[in-house]
Design brief:
The chain has about 290 residues and is of the alpha/beta class. The chain has helices at about 1-15, 45-50, 55-65, 80-90, 105-115, 165-170, 190-195, 195-200, 215-220, 225-235, 255-260, and strands at about 20-25, 30-35, 70-75, 95-100, 120-125, 130, 135-140, 160-165, 180-185, 205-210, 235-240, 250, 270-275.
């Protein structure tokens, strides 16, 4: 495997106009070629080049919760790490729609999805998911290509205009609704939920894996507890997913309110990922061994 990885890197590095490929190594999957940014991305691409895997715990959780034939949304797809793995899990009977507004990331995401053989029907969309159809200003990070945002944090960042869409509009004519939604949209999660109120009112209850980032939510003009209340009000069972731990922690409103005044305060910049399982879902059994007792 190391020989193949070295060959891919040397081959790609020899010509700047060729993809820079690493070998993805995920337990339970065959090694696969995956394109990353050559430079300028201090986090996702750098970690993938060093280890061949990104966010091992979340990778394990999301692939366990998905099943062949599922319909999945990947909101904030970046260069396609989760979309590629999910496409493999879902197989040819499955479907995945991936949203990524940044042009550089979107081009790489599209190429990575094209490399999957025998995977799901994949539709990459160069849009930001929000609460209205139109456009938004996207503030670009110069060194973390997974940290483009719809708000200014007071630092100097270049901006671009990107198209927006709502889930209510995108899924209005869908023959079926998604089984799972992964969202890493840098503070846009509350907007995403507002743009899906029609679907929720009709009983749509997918599994959610989403970033819960009070700093980003607050600076995007939203109350983090409103987002939490949306999930709680729809009867979700929720778990905290943090890569520094090897387990998932059950989390409730009392704990979230306590954390928001301390570790997760909007001024701290800290975040967690939430795994939200609909009440009565049998998919909880697929991750039960990861839940802290």
């Amino acid at each position: 495997m190391k020989t193949l990885t070295r060959h891919l890197r040397l081959q790609s590095a020899s010509m700047d106009n060729r993809p820079f490929l690493i070998e993805g190594n995920v337990p339970g999957f065959e090694p696969f070629a995956f394109e990353i940014h050559r430079a300028g991305d201090a986090y996702i691409s750098t970690e993938l080049e060093a280890t061949g895997i990104w966010e091992p715990l979340e990778t394990s959780v999301i692939t366990r919760l998905s099943r062949p034939g599922d319909f999945v949304l990947d909101i904030g797809g970046n260069i396609g790490w989760y979309s590629v793995l999910l496409s493999k899990v879902l197989g040819p009977a499955g479907q995945i729609i991936t949203f990524e507004p940044d042009p550089r990331n979107f081009a790489m995401l599209s190429r990575n999805l094209e490399r999957v053989r025998g995977g799901a029907i994949a539709t990459p969309l160069q849009k930001a998911v929000s609460d209205a159809e139109g456009t938004l200003k996207l503030f670009l990070s110069p060194d973390n290509l997974g940290d483009h945002r719809i708000f200014s944090d007071g630092t100097e960042r270049p901006t671009i205009e990107v198209p927006t869409a709502t889930l209510d509009a995108i899924l209005a004519d869908a023959s079926r609704l998604p089984d799972l939604v992964k969202s890493d949209a840098q503070g846009s999660e509350a907007r995403i939920f507002r743009g899906a109120q029609g679907l929720f009112s009709k009983g749509w209850r997918p599994i959610f894996l989403m970033e819960f980032w009070p700093f980003g939510l607050t600076n995007s003009g939203d109350d983090p507890m409103w987002l939490w209340g949306q999930l709680a009000g729809m009867g979700y069972q929720m778990f905290e997913l943090t890569e520094a731990r090897s387990t998932l922690l059950s989390i409730d409103e009392l704990r979230v309110r306590s954390e928001i005044t301390d570790r997760l305060s909007p001024t701290s910049g800290s975040f967690i990922n939430l795994v939200a399982i609909p009440s009565g879902s049998d998919r909880l059994t697929s991750i039960e061994d990861l839940v802290a007792r």
